[in-house]
Amino acid sequence: MIGIDRWQEIFGVLRRNKLRTFLTSLSVSWGIFMLVILLGAGTGLENAVKYKFRDDAVNSIWIWSGKTTKAYAGLPIGRNIRFTNGDYEAIKRSIPEIDHITSRYYLRGDAYVVRYGDRTSSFDIRATHPDHRYLENTIIVKGRFLDDHDQAERRKVTVIGQRVSDFLFRGDDPIGKYLTIGGISYLVIGVFEDEGGENEMRKMYIPISTAQQAYGGGDTVHTIMFTLANTNLAGSKRIEKEVRKILATRHKYDPTDKRAIRLRNQLEGPAEVEQIFSMIRIFIWVVGIGTIVAGIVGVSNIMLISVKERTREIGLRKAVGATPGSLIALVMQESVFLTSLAGYCGVVVGVICLEIMDRILPKNEYFMNPQVDLSVVLGATVLLVLFGALAGFVPARRAARVNPIVALREE
Amino acid sequence: MIRLEKVNKFYKVGAHPLHVLKDLDLEIHEGELVSIMGSSGSGKSTLLNILGILDDYDRGSYHLDGVLVKSLSERRAAYYRNRMIGFVFQSFNLLPFKSALENVALPLYYQKVPRRKRNKIASEYLARVGLLEWSEHVPAEMSGGQKQRIAIARALIAQPKIILADEPTGALDSETSYSIMEILKDVHARGITVVVVTHEHDIAEMTDRVIRLRDGRVEGQEREAA
């Protein structure tokens, strides 16, 4: 089937029409090249957007307190809503889908200077529940995170970011050492890293119960956040409403007042982004395949012309014993070979271009790691062989139907 | 070798079928050298196409070496053309991009004979027509007579039962024509049946028997006193 002889026939034909072969191949190469570049660029955009979501748990809902903008039950506009431990408990109690829940109390400013030995600095200090580690993707590299005993017994313990550790302890093991926050002494029980980057590693965590007592916070909470188990976007929307209702009842504001509390549903972002990118991907494939099809039609056209030009030759081949099958195979093989080779060149050049693009473009948050999957390349290859066969089909059939009498007739 | 009995052939031209061959009877024996003559429209090209299994016929029967040739599949027809018939054309029909050797070897390519072996055989046949030293030349570098000799070598290489020559000397001057006819006579002398279609009397006179066609029938057969 795939003997050397037929390859020699094909190369013979291609060599006789070098320019034509080149130009025809170019149209296919160009189509695949564009598809690869577009897909790669699409991936670059997508990577950049996904990078922004990398830090936080994607199935979480975050709630901040705000200011009322609607009068309700005789209460005035502009009231500050203040969350309390009670709100945390209420939400935890009434939403069964909650997987992990924490509230946050912030300690910011000069009053909370951190000191170890003769080194002092101010860091962001977050007072949280133990579950907080699941919301920020906190990675413990030494010791442990806060636990329920710390919370229940209001222990003066702290978990510090890697950068905090670097600054205060200069490479010494911080575990078991005491540092002070606003003059109060804390035992370091753990060191963490965070995928969120440098800034996240300049934070410190203490139990929220400790913070409320030690710094006069009472039962105040600044933020409540929780993750949801086995919940899709629609489910999270329902829970969103439920939370608004619970808080509206507890704080006596209009449930339709969107400013009284601020709520961010992290499930929304990725879902929207995913949707946008799947649309973009579809669009890219449509454009890419359109471009390739234009190339394929070109190949088919040229092959038709080639078959027509070679009518006499084909007629003679039939007269000396060529079967229709052998002629179809000849034309098809030429077509598949040409499109595959041209397509392969397009893929290679496209991948090289993406690689160069990745190298020379400065790091930025709108475009990163443009690339195409191996599976896409393989898919495109299969597509090319298929298209090649498709392009060769009509000309091949034409060749097989050449009537040797007509072909050999004297002009 | 060739036996045609009441062969009829119609061509559809417009609404009315054109009756080209009318109950044509013809017998050519093994080892004969015959010529077919006839004016244009006499049906001689159609007859040649049917003899060469390039075209089918509507009624009657055609036996080639005892095999009934009728309504063959394309594959089957290709097989018989390859094994039983050698064609020689007026305009040679050599593949312009192939060397003399490759042109001669072409029928063996379709018999799937390995390259080395078929080139060796092709060389022998090139030697027989006296063109061995032209093996690597392409047709454009050769004279008409040389091209026709290449074509004859190609027609012979598959050791066919019959050689069908369609105006083999039509494009050649008379001196070259005679040398080509000498080669065909030599082929005939080796026992192969040769059928030459021509409109030139001096060419026809060089054959054993002249079959004259007129209006789709055999009008007369004369044995030449060659």
Largest sheet of chain A: 12 strands, mixed
How helix-rich are the residues of chain B, as a percent range? 25-40%
Q: How does the major sheet of chain B shape up?
A: 6 strands, mixed
Q: Number of DSSP helices of chain B?
A: 7
CATH superfamily of chain B: P-loop containing nucleotide triphosphate hydrolases
Mean pLDDT rating of chain A: 86
Put the structure in a nutshell.
The complex is a heterodimer of chains A (411) and B (226). Chain A has 411 residues and is of the alpha+beta class.
How is the topology of this model organized?
The complex is a heterodimer of chains A (411) and B (226).
Chain A: H1 4-16, H2 18-52, E1 60-65, E2 83-84, H3 85-94, E3 98-107, E4 114-116, E5 119-121, E6 124-128, H4 132-135, E7 138-143, H5 148-153, E8 157-161, H6 162-169, E9 178-181, E10 184-194, E11 203-207, H7 208-214, E12 220-221, E13 223-228, H8 233-251, E14 261-265, H9 268-309, H10 311-319, H11 324-360, H12 374-400, H13 404-408
Parallel strand pairs in A: 6-11, 8-10
Antiparallel strand pairs in A: 1-13, 1-14, 2-12, 3-6, 3-13, 4-5, 4-9, 7-10, 8-11, 9-10
Helix pairs in contact in A: 1-11, 2-9, 2-11, 9-11, 9-12, 11-12
Chain B: E1 2-13, E2 16-28, E3 33-37, H1 44-51, E4 59-64, E5 67-68, H2 74-84, E6 85-88, H3 100-109, H4 115-128, H5 144-157, E7 162-166, H6 174-189, E8 193-197, H7 201-204, E9 209-214, E10 217-223
Parallel strand pairs in B: 3-8, 3-9, 6-7, 7-8
Antiparallel strand pairs in B: 1-2, 1-4, 4-5, 9-10
Could you characterize what this model shows?
- The complex is a heterodimer of chains A (411) and B (226).
- Chain A is α+β, with helices and mostly antiparallel strands and 411 residues long.
- Chain A folds into two domains: 4-53 and 271-408, no CATH class; 60-265, no CATH class.
- Chain A is built from 13 helices and 14 strands.
- Chain A has helices spanning 4-16, 18-52, 85-94, 132-135, 148-153, 162-169, 208-214, 233-251, 268-309, 311-319, 324-360, 374-400, 404-408; strands spanning 60-65, 83-84, 98-107, 114-116, 119-121, 124-128, 138-143, 157-161, 178-181, 184-194, 203-207, 220-221, 223-228, 261-265.
- In chain A, the strands form two sheets. In chain A, strands 1, 3, 4, 5, 6, 7, 8, 9, 10, 11, 13 and 14 form a twelve-stranded mixed sheet that branches.
- The two termini of chain A are 35 Å apart.
- Chain B is an alpha/beta fold and 226 residues long.
- In chain B, the strands form two sheets. Chain B has a six-stranded mixed sheet with strand order 6-7-8-3-9-10, sandwiched between helices.
- The model of chain B has no long low-confidence stretch (mean pLDDT 90).
- The chains are: A alpha+beta (411), B alpha/beta (226).
- Chains A and B meet through helix 1, helix 10, helix 11 and helix 13 of A and helix 2 and helix 3 of B.
